[in-house]
Every structure is written in structure tokens, then in C-alpha cells.
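Exercise 7.
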Amino acid sequence: MNLKLDTDLVLVKKNKNITEVTLNRPTVLNALSSGLREQLSQVFTELGKDEMTDVIILTGAGRAFTVGLDLKELGGERPADAVMTKDLYQAIADVPQPIIAAVNGYAITGGFEIALMCDFMIASETAQFADTHARVGVVPGWGLSQRLPRLIGINRAKQLSLTGNYLDAQTALAWGLVNKVVPNEELLSTCRAIAEDICSTEPITRNVIKDIMDKGWHTSLEKGLDIEAQANRLHARKEVRPQKVAQRRADIQQRGRNQAKH
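Solution. The predicted structure, written as C-alpha cells, is:
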């Protein structure tokens, strides 16, 4: 697939099977105008079909991941710069590849929701999170009210959402919101290293595991176990070969020995 996705509002950079997507309105902290949302939707729609992309890293230019919807546009102070043709939430939800959020600064309200749409987050030391829906007077519509309590517990989620207060990176790590906090200058290199580890796994199996985790997260444990069992049986019929398993086992053992040396 020949991807022509690089635009003024969304930058796309490919390195082997890893694609980096950068929100590019740094002068307004990557506020999500209708134009940025439309372009980002198109990018994710195309990447979801790109067989040469195994992992996506999403980040922001400048001091922010994104501060959420463009409030000047929302309030009528600035005209909309595009007509939306596809919902951004659905465009990201439809992507089968793992998405890593490289949270480089402010992730506020709608920006917080976009970070939560990703499979996991790595944060820089200057990252800050806030849910200001209650202060702006907008009810969440991209899943924050459901995802956030499942990640950090309902009491902490209520504290964040009902106060609109900010959460720093280290507290986000302690609460289990982000997987790791690194110095600003190491954020992208850390995410790239994790992405390379993901790319080194068996792709069909990896995609099935991500899919059943996502489906199970939206249902009960009992139904989730059924989803896993069905996927296990289907995958075994299609993919498991003794010689493949033996070779992969040898590769895993060698990887363990290499990591033990460092």
C-alpha cells in the first residue's frame, strides 16, 4: 500500500514496520480542530489497512500530546476548518495494530480520551493528565467515563473527573494509568524500542491476543474466557505446527539468554 498520509496537521513517519503519527498544531497545544480530527481519522483509517505497519506510535508536537477539542471552534469564536466524514473514535477503534501513546506533555479532556483509546501509554516526565469535561460543561463521548475507572479504579477516576484537577506523570504511573515514565528526550526512543519488541513477535498470534484482550475487556470474565477458548481452538487449527513451535521456543530461549547478559 502506498500511503500518502503526511499533512500539515498530522505528520506520519514510517521506519520499517513502525509508523509514528504526530499531531501537529503545537502553537495551540495540538487542540483538536475539526480539520485535525478529520485528518487524524483518515490517517488511522488508512493505517488500519496497511499491511506494512505492525505498530503505531501516537504523539504530539511541542509541549502537548493534545489538550482536547478546540474550544474556540467549539464556542463559535473560530469557524470550523473541515467537515467531519468519519468519527475519530471509530477510526481509532477499528485499527487492528497495537497503538502506543507517547504522551509528551498535556493530555487534557478529549486528548486524555485519545490517549486512553491507545493500547497503553508511555509518558514523559512533563506529561500531565486532566479530565475537565465537568468544568467545560461537556459530557464525555469518547469512552473516558468507562475506560478510566477500569484502569485506575472508580474512586480515583471520580476524583479526577469531578474535580477537573491535573495528574502528574509520576502519580499516573503509581496509579497504573501509564506503563512507564521516562525523561522527555528518551520518550520516542523508548516507545520505538517497545514497538520493535512487539514487531519481533509472531504477527498472527499477536493480533489474535490483542483482539481477544480488547473483546474480553468489554464483557464479563466468564464471556471473556469463552472468547479466549474459541480463539485458541481456531488458531490451533490454522497456525500450530510442531516445527514452528520448536523454532520459536529456541528463539525465546536465546532471547532470554541475551537479555540476562544486560
